[in-house]
Amino acid sequence: MTVKVTASRCPQNHRCPIINICPVGAIKQEGFAAPEIDYDKCTGCGKCIKYCAFRAFSN
């Protein structure tokens, strides 16, 4: 599964809490910008999709 981030769904006004949910540390964020996925690390587990309240993460 390839996970993507839809920046328009992310409020970009806080540190993304989903960073701590990723079991392999594949989510990075610069300041309060929309998070980015490191596809070399992402295993496609789907936890980010399940827990993002704004549905900014999808496949």
Give a structural overview:
The chain has 1 helix and 4 strands; from the N terminus they run E-E-E-H-E. With 59 residues, it is mainly β. The chain has a single domain, classed as 2-Layer Sandwich (Alpha-Beta Plaits), CATH 3.30.70. A two-stranded antiparallel ribbon has the order 1-4. The chain has a two-stranded antiparallel sheet with strand order 2-3. A hairpin with a 7-residue loop joins strand 2 and strand 3 (36-37). The longest helix has 5 residues, at 47-51. It is globular and about 25 Å long. It starts with a strand and ends with a strand. The mean pLDDT is 96.
Which short descriptors sum up this protein?
59 residues, mainly beta, Alpha-Beta Plaits, two-stranded antiparallel ribbon, 1 helix, globular
What is the structure about, briefly put?
This protein is mainly beta and 59 residues long. It contains 1 helix and 4 strands. The radius of gyration is 10 Å and the shape is globular.
| Percent in helix | under 10%
Total helical elements: 1
Return the domain count: 1
Uncertain segments are none
Largest sheet: 2 strands, antiparallel
Structural class: mainly beta
Assign the CATH topology: Alpha-Beta Plaits
Overall geometry comes to: globular
Overall pLDDT confidence: 96
**Mind telling me which CATH architecture this is?**
2-Layer Sandwich
Bin the strand percentage.
Answer: 5-15%
Total strand count, please?
4
Order of helices and strands: EEEHE
Strand order of the largest sheet: 1-4
